[in-house]
Amino acid sequence: MEITGYDLYELPPRWLFLKIETDEGIVGWGEPIVEGRAKTVKTAVSEMLDGYLVGEDPLRIEDHWQALYRSGFYRGGPILMSAIAGIDQALWDIKGKYYDAPVYELLGGKSRDKIRVYQWVGGDRPADVVEEANRLVDTGYTALKMDATNQTRHIETAASIERVVDRIRNVREAVDDTVDIGVDFRGRVSKSMAKTLTNRLADLDLMFVEEPVLPENVDHLPAIANQSPVPIATGERLYSRWDFKELFRGGAVDLIQPVVSHAGGISEVAKLATMAEAFDVGVAPNCPLGPIALAASLQVDTYIPNLVVQDHGFDIHSPDLGPAYDYLEDPNVFNFDDGYLDTLDDPGLGITIDEETIESRSQAHVEWQNPTWRNEDGSITDW
C-alpha cells in the first residue's frame, strides 16, 4: 500500500483536520492543530507529507514517526509535534481499517471496558459556576474541572486570594462528595501564588490542581508539592517523552496530561503512559479539541493501564450544543452514560467522518485567536 495524497481542512470553531489517501482506497483522518496557529501547523504538515511521506507505505508507523522527528535538525515544540501528531493519528486510522480492527487492538488490546470523562465548568460569577456544576452532575458527570483564576498579578491581595478559594469551595460544597473536582491554574499564577493557593485549597479534597506553574517553571513543582497534599497534574504544554523526562525525575507530578494532537500522536502518548507507569504516575489526557482528536485519545485510553480520567472539548452529552457531531456520520458514536464513554470499537479510530460536511464547512473563514490579557496597570499577564 502507498500514500497517494492528502487534504487539509480548516474548520470552525478552531480545528484542523487531515485526510491521508492511499492507492487501496483506504483513507485515514487526523487532527493536527495548535489552537490559534492552524495555518502554521497546516504548513508544517504539508512540508512533512510533500517532503517525505507521500509515496511511502502507511503501515510503517514507527519508522515514519522516527523519520519525521529525527530527520530535522530542529526537533520538538508545539508546531512540529502537533504536525507529527495529526499524521500519526491518520496513519493509525489507516492501519486499523487495513486490519479491520480498532487502534487499541493493534496497540495491545483493552485494559478497560469504558472510559471515565470530565467536563469543564463554565461561568464567570460564583453563582453561575455553581449552577453549571450542578447541571453537569445532573447530566451524569462524576468528574468536573474548573479554572482557578482569571488574570493574576505576581503577588495578589488577600481579598483576591479569598475570592479564588471561595469560588472553588462553593462548587466543592454544592456537589456530592462522590464527584471529583480538578482545578486548572493554567500557569496563570507565579510560583509564590501557586504555593499560597494550593496550601489554601488543601482541605477541599480536590482530584488535582493542573498547571500550578507554567511548563518552563516546572522546577518549582517539588516545592509546591511538598507543602500541599493536593495531587499535581501537568503536561498539556509538553510535547514528547524528552520534555516529560525531567518532570518524572523530579517526583512532584501525580498525573500527566498529554494532548494526543500536540504530543506526537497516538504513538507518543502511548509511550508517555508507559514512562508514567514506571514512575507511579497516572494519565489524564487533555483534549480541548474536536472529534478526531477525542477518538484518537480514547483509543489510547482503552489500551493504557494507568488512565485516571479523560478530558474532552465539546459536549458529548448533548449533540445540539456543539459542531463536533456535524462532522460525523454517526452522531451517537460517543456514547455517554453515568460519567463514562464507551470504547470505540469500529476499525481505525472508530469514527466515520462526514466528508460532505467537511468540504462545505471548510469554505468558512476561521480565524480563532486566544485573547490578550492585561493587568490593571496595563502590563501583559498570562491567559
TrEMBL record:
Source organism, top-level taxon: Archaea
Domain Mandelate racemase/muconate lactonizing enzyme C-terminal: 126-231
Gene Ontology molecular function: any one: galactonate dehydratase activity
InterPro entries attached to this UniProt entry: DgoD-like, Enolase-like_C_sf, Enolase-like_N, Enolase_C-like, Galactonate_deHydtase, Mandel_Rmase/mucon_lact_enz_CS, Mandelate_racemase_C, Mandelate_racemase_N_dom
SUPFAM superfamilies: Enolase C-terminal domain-like, Enolase N-terminal domain-like
PROSITE patterns for the chain: MR_MLE_1
Stretches assigned to coiled coil: none
Keyword annotations: Lyase, Magnesium, Metal-binding
Assigned EC number: 4.2.1.6
NCBIfam families (alphabetical): PRK14017.1 (NF010624)
Database matches in PANTHER family: D-GALACTONATE DEHYDRATASE, D-GALACTONATE DEHYDRATASE-RELATED
Protein name per its UniProtKB record: Galactonate dehydratase
